[in-house]
Amino acid sequence: MLGILCSGQGMQDAGGLAALCAADAAAADVVQRISARLGRDLTDDAPDLFANAWAQPWIFAYQAAAWAALGPRLPRPRAVAGYSLGEMAAYACAGALDPVEGAALTRRRAELMDGASPTAGGLVAARGLAESRIAALCAAHGLHVAIVNGPDRLVVGGAAASLAGFADAVAALGGQTTPLNVRVASHTPEMLPAVGPFAAALAASGLGASERWASGLGAPGIPVGAGVDADPVDGDAEVGGSRAQIAAVKHGEQVVLAADGQGGVLGEEHDVVDIHQGPE
Fold first, then answer.
1. Distance between CA atoms of 35 and 173, rounded to whole angstroms?
2. Both ends of the chain: CA-CA distance in Å?
3. How far is CA 240 from CA 98, 187, 195, in A?
4. pLDDT digits (tens, 9 = 90+) for 181-200
């Protein structure tokens, strides 16, 4: 059994999209069509490869293009799942979302998230302290737990100006932190203003319309796992889940466990192809 997992942001590789396009004609075609829709050549990724407004559509384009190159060479997957914004690419890989339409939605997602908070945001990975202690430090610094990867491995998000003090506090208690190359407080309440408008954008696209899925027009040819927990989703649930996960705490360990064959839409034992963008 084969499963496909599309990653989130933070490991973009300068020149990676251009190299992929140079290596495969199908990938190049996808990126060319996406670039035309967005009004920018995405293979020219400098200088803002990590600026959220373009990082998200860049990653989506990479994953959609990688699937265009890999899909014909692989057996049919049992299911596709996406981590964070990778959920959008998962729908494209599954055949439920045209890559050009998906790129436009992902660009809108990024714009709404950037506009949700009046201050610059970011994410920091923390490890070595219990979740309860990290939560207390978050409260003290006006931050939020964004992603739970394990009992003592969490990602914290909020105002960039507060993250440095949080890191110092973690170190004072014997923990460790690593700043992530993400310039928005994803999966925290800071993003709540983006939820409603993104829901409207998804609804306008028709992606989550139950009649569209029931008719098979635009329905996924491959089952898709939600970006929050890898549980199977249908059309209506997809709209709710994709909009809500912008501001919801992400339990990353559930997506990873599903990818390892321990639950979620992928279910039983299988091999996993991780479509990510960056060096190993």
1. 47
2. 24
3. 19, 15, 9
4. 898 999 899 999 998 898 88
